[in-house]
Design brief:
The complex is a heterodimer of chains A (510) and B (233). Chain A has 23 helices and no strands. With 510 residues, chain A is mainly alpha-helical. Chain A has two domains: 196 residues, no CATH class; 223 residues, no CATH class. In chain A, α17 runs antiparallel to α22. The longest helix of chain A has 30 residues. Chain A is globular. Chain B has a domain of 162 residues: Rossmann fold (3-Layer(aba) Sandwich). Chain B has a six-stranded mixed β-sheet, with helices on both faces. Chain B has a four-stranded antiparallel β-sheet with strand order 2-1-4-5, covered by helices on one side. In chain B, α2 packs parallel to α4 and α7 packs across α8. The relative contact order of chain B is 0.18. The chains are: A mainly alpha (510), B alpha/beta (233). Chains A and B meet through α1, α4 and α13 of A and β6 and α2 of B.
Chain lengths: 510, 233
């Protein structure tokens, strides 16, 4: 048990230090008080027996849960060992690899409990209260499934290319299940929801577990135990992969030499090449802006092309075929655009924190003379637009398949504007709470609330536009308002980031 | 043979051979300098010996047994001094004591090491608040606390001021006197000349010279000249 006692000591002392820091920061205490007050309010509402839609709530929670699990199980290899000190003090120590892996799993499952916040913000507390499910059961079900998802991630990690393929198939399966949930909810109406949910496995299992049924919970427990056992059996290889793909590239980035691993080497060479080429072009407008844009585009190209891009294109085609089939059977066309918007805006806001610390440490940010706001915009646009095109393409494909050509055309700018808004909120969220490990839950909560408010504002503008002239003006006004919100987010983020110590633009700040 | 034996160690990243079949030994109570230009494979060699990367081939033995199963007898100090930012200096030693199941006397031992490395006055300071040199010294303290049979040190002088370098050299000499086999990679040839009993010189992943300082410097006159002659040849 020596390994565990050392790792528990490490976590315990870290937690105490975090609490000491939290108690010294009044601002953070206020935010935490607000979060806790919010949860107390939600739970008390549920207990008061207010009118609910338990079936709908349950299915929304399950859909969100499935997607979250899918994302957790495909998580990147870099997540395995994320702290540079692990390389010096944990991995080479006498602590056996199986204990390191179990410890990492427990840490990550705990940190992923922020997903609970996502679920809690919307439906689960009310569902739990109305369905008679206690918080203990709920935590047990969600915790077990998270552990199973994480363990699965590590087991897949060991399978190399096959593991990569399996991860994508898994996410596709989770997404399909979540889509089915939405279809059931919006297409068949509430009457058919329960029937569908109890007839499709493992959707039924997930729902039963959330509703506290013993056998389902047992099944989740068994799955978690089996996956953790497989993970422990593969522990030495998993730790080595974690070092090679996680810690060494991380150290290479901070060291600036990029020679620790093949992956880091390739990435560093690419960034340096694009950066140098861009910097030589003194006549380029923006003085640094387009260089950053180029680096970001190159990064996206390398990470997305050709495999991920092909899969996304395949998904669009699939959506088109599904749209055509659905139209033939009289399924309402609104279902998929509503689902895409739901996932993109709410789930997207919950899970996508825009992290800038590594990017801002590169010389392109501090050594080029352009204003910070413009550089931020140039760096921000490629990622946000790529994400927006990926998601919106699904809705566009579906609408084209369902012969809603005009709506398909309208949905593209709206989808892109919404993604820019979501990512802009992520950026602002990071600029207010950068690197704060103890603030992760607060950051998710803040992003969600900001997104709900921003989306409601854009929606209200859209309704006003509809009243003035129909669908076209409604979409245009909603998209414009979302764009305006994204722009405001960028300006605010630039203002905040400009005050951080590690950014020193040589001239001008946004 | 006692001590560390590295036999035909190899490590490749795809087509790139970072280390190409090197063999050398480090005896107990001996400091061997691992020298070479950038990209020679020094860090990769140390990472492979520390179990951080999986060698593509070859073996490493410690006192005749595979090194892989003897992590408790190994100390490793990486080039980049990364410590737990929220743990104090003293708590780092507490973590190491638990990881290696050290007996009740570890605290006195730890205090002594901290004093020798001039870290006693910052024992209650968090890792994140330490300077780079202090972090480096803290990692060395952590590596020495459990009396390793083999100590692997990657570029220990980087980031240390002259006084820090002096303290480090003193600590390594004390470990050598206690019988620890030390393999140390460094760019600073004057330090290597001062502290190492033998040197191993690598270039492009291959071992190009190995021997005592006297042997290596016999013809060129100094280690720097010998190094330049060998690596430019």
């Amino acid at each position: 048990m020596s390994g565990y006692s050392a790792l528990l000591y490490l976590e315990w002392r870290t937690l105490l230090a975090q609490l000491r820091l939290l108690l010294r920061a009044r601002g953070r205490l206020v935010i935490w008080a607000l979060v806790l007050a919010y949860f107390a309010f939600i739970v008390s509402r549920g207990r008061a027996g207010m009118p609910h839609l338990p079936d709908a709530a349950a299915l929304y929670a399950v859909a969100l849960w499935l997607l979250s699990l899918g994302l957790a199980s495909i998580g990147g290899r870099r997540c395995l060992l994320a702290r540079p000190a692990d390389l010096a003090l944990v991995v080479p120590s006498a602590i056996p690899p199986d204990r390191i892996v179990v410890w990492t799993l427990a840490r990550q499952a705990l940190s992923q409990l922020r997903l609970l916040v996502v679920v809690a913000v919307f439906w689960v507390p009310q569902m739990a209260a109305s369905g008679g499910v206690g918080w203990g059961t709920l935590l047990y079900a969600v915790g077990l499934s998270l552990i199973a998802a994480m363990a699965l991630r590590y087991v897949l990690l060991d399978l190399g290319r096959w593991g990569s393929l399996a991860r994508w198939l898994l996410l596709a399966a989770f997404a399909a299940l979540a889509l089915l949930t939405a279809l059931a909810l919006l297409g068949d109406g509430l009457a058919g929801v329960s029937q569908l949910a109890t007839s499709i496995w493992p959707l039924s299992l997930a729902l039963q577990a959330l509703l506290g049924q013993g056998l389902a919970l047992l099944a989740f427990g068994l799955a978690a135990v089996l996956l953790v056992a497989a993970m422990v059996a593969l522990a030495p290889r998993i730790v080595r992969l974690g070092v090679d793909w996680g810690l060494l590239p991380l150290l290479a980035r901070t060291r600036g030499a990029g020679r620790y691993s093949a992956a880091a080497l390739r990435q560093e060479r690419l960034t340096a090449r694009v950066g140098r080429r861009a910097l030589r072009r003194r006549d380029w407008p923006g003085r640094g802006d387009l260089a950053l844009c180029g680096v970001e585009l190159a990064r996206l190209y390398r990470t997305l092309w050709p495999r991920t891009a092909s899969l996304i294109a395949l998904l669009w085609v699939f959506a088109g075929v599904a749209g055509a089939l659905a139209a033939e059977r009289g399924v309402p066309w609104q279902i998929v655009p509503a689902f895409v918007a739901y996932v993109m805006v709410l789930s997207g806001a919950a899970v996508s924190s825009v992290q800038l610390q590594a990017v801002l440490a590169t010389p392109l940010w501090s050594q080029t003379p352009g204003a910070l706001g413009r550089k931020l915009l140039a760096w921000f646009l490629p990622g946000a637009l790529t994400g927006g095109v990926g998601w919106t393409g699904v809705a566009v494909g579906w609408l084209l398949g369902a012969h809603q050509t005009l709506l398909a055309l309208w949905s593209l700018p709206l989808g892109l504007a919404l993604m820019l808004m979501v990512r802009g909120i992520g950026l602002v969220g990071w600029s207010f709470l950068p690197n704060a490990v103890d603030q992760r839950v607060v950051a998710v909560w803040l992003r969600l609330l900001l997104t709900v408010v921003a989306a409601a504002l854009a929606g209200a503008c859209g309704v006003a536009g509809y009243a003035l002239g129909g669908v076209g003006p409604a979409v245009a006004v909603a998209a414009l308002s979302a764009l305006g919100e994204a722009y405001l987010c960028l300006r605010l983020a630039a203002l905040r980031i400009g005050r951080m110590d590690f950014v020193r633009p040589s001239e001008g700040r946004a | 043979m006692a001590g560390l034996e590295v036999l035909d160690l190899r490590k490749s990243y795809g087509d790139v051979a970072a280390v190409s079949g090197i063999s050398f030994t480090v005896r107990p109570g001996e400091i061997v300098g691992l020298l070479g230009p950038n990209g020679a494979g020094k860090t990769t060699t140390l990472h492979a010996l520390a179990g951080l990367v999986h060698p593509s081939g070859g073996r490493a033995l410690l006192d005749g047994l595979p090194l892989e199963g003897q992590k408790a007898r190994l100390g490793f100090v990486p080039e980049q001094p990364e410590v737990f930012p929220l743990l104090t200096v003293e708590e780092h030693l507490g973590f190491i004591a638990r990881a290696y199941r050290l007996g009740p006397g570890w605290q006195e031992e730890g205090d002594d090491i901290l004093r020798r490395l001039h870290l006693a006055e910052v024992a209650q300071r968090a890792g994140g608040a330490l300077s780079k040199g202090m972090k480096q010294k803290l990692l060395i303290a952590c590596a020495l606390l459990h009396h390793p049979t083999l100590l692997l040190v990657d570029e220990p002088m980087v980031g240390l001021d002259p006084a820090g370098q002096r303290e480090l050299i003193g600590a390594l000499r004390a470990a050598r006197a206690a019988g620890t086999a030390i393999l140390l990679s460094t760019h600073i040839l004057s330090s290597a000349e001062e502290i190492c009993d033998r040197v191993v010189i690598l270039q492009r992943g291959r071992l190009i010279a190995e021997g005592s300082l006297a042997d290596i410097t016999a013809q060129a006159g100094s280690l720097e000249e010998a190094f330049m002659d060998l690596t430019e040849a």
